[in-house]
Amino acid sequence: MIIVVNNNISDSEYKELISYLKEKKAEIHEVRGVEKRIIGVIGNKHKLDKDAIITFEGVEKVIPIIESYKIASRQMHPQATIIEVGKVKIGGIQPVKMAGPCSVESEEQIWQSAEEMAKQGVDILRGGIFKPRSSPYSFQGIGEIGLPWLRDAGKHYGLPVISEVMQIKQIEDMYDYVDIYQVGARNMQNFKLLEELGKTDKPIMLKRGIAATLNEFLMSAEYILSQGNNKVILCERGIRTFVEFSRNTLDINIIPMIKNVSHLPIIVDPSHATGRRDLIIPTTLAGLTAGADGFIVEVHPNPHVALSDGAQQLNFSQFAKLIEDYKIIENSVEILRAKKMKEIEKDASSSLQ
């Protein structure tokens, strides 16, 4: 449930309310707005007496949360969540650009990539260290040796770094080397891994599973949020459909839908969604126009010799073309984002009146 509290409530009255909720073994999530304070309460609803709660001084309203995802709900948190990674803000007016090679293959390759990504105005450098592959015979990633290469290249060019974590053990192994943990589509419902990531203080980018519904996607995010980590970035990376001309299908629909029902930022991954470099630029622009908070794209110095997923990686000149095309619509995208953000937050706040 959501408890709407007036900001004029005294400290002693507020503490009394919180104490009551804790006595009922409720999990409490506090959000302070401009005019009102919201307390999200998760717990055994049979022990929480709505009529008793409404009698506390300063409590204006008690609202049930209908969705199964509680903490991720826009009801719980009307304002959009903005996640800061160094100087980068994910979820604000300006979409974030993440790019880099599918896999870190050598120290020279990742440094060359980082230099070019910085030159093109990328915000966050991506690079796979551990690679989940469909075939056991495919390149599985360079492993731990590549972690300092990725970190040092990013640090030198002022780029935070993101890389995929596959196992609980790797959370600690990667902690000092990455700024954002990425959870791949295959692990979207690896709930033990999600729970452990929820205990860290680093942002988590959670990719949608290849056949996951919106509810399943947000419930996976809930596993992370429920452990205290509210720095969750969602990623639409394509779902499996009947089409045969692309690797997956980028689900544009889910972007505005997520914005309607959740406060979490969502970015698009056109590389995995299409599997084809000739489709990456138009689908990236489509995702941003639909309201995505950014994109993550695979870029390689020479995709033809890449050790993994060469067909879906842009070379440097192709990526420069993507940035060039994006700059044509950049101002309009930001205006639309600001307008839509205000509308959604206004609607969400009005539901608490």
How would you characterize the overall build of this protein?
With 353 residues, this protein is α/β, with parallel strands linked by helices. The chain has eleven helices and 14 strands. It has an eight-stranded parallel beta sheet. A four-stranded antiparallel beta sheet has the order 2-3-1-4, with helices on one face. A two-stranded antiparallel sheet has the order 5-6. Strand 5 and strand 6 form a beta hairpin. Helix 3 packs parallel to helix 4. The chain is elongated. 43% of the residues are buried.
H/E element string?
Answer: EHEEHEEEEHEHEHEHEHEHEHHEH
Q: How many domains, as an integer?
A: 2
The CATH architecture of the largest domain can be named as Alpha-Beta Barrel
Give the strand tally: 14
CATH superfamily of the largest domain: Aldolase class I
Distance between the termini: 15 Å
User: What portion of residues is helical?
Assistant: 25-40%
Strand proportion, as a percent range, falls in 15-25%
Dominant shape: elongated
Mean pLDDT figure: 93
CATH topology term of the largest domain = TIM Barrel
Any chance you could write out the topology, listing elements then pairs?
Blueprint: E1 2-6, H1 11-23, E2 27-32, E3 36-42, H2 50-53, E4 59-63, E5 83-85, E6 88-90, E7 96-100, H3 107-119, E8 124-126, H4 147-156, E9 161-164, H5 168-174, E10 180-183, H6 191-197, E11 204-207, H7 214-225, E12 232-236, H8 254-261, E13 266-268, H9 270-274, H10 277-289, E14 294-298, H11 316-350
Parallel strand pairs: 7-8, 7-14, 8-9, 9-10, 10-11, 11-12, 12-13
Antiparallel strand pairs: 1-3, 1-4, 2-3, 5-6
Helix pairs in contact: 3-4, 6-7, 10-11
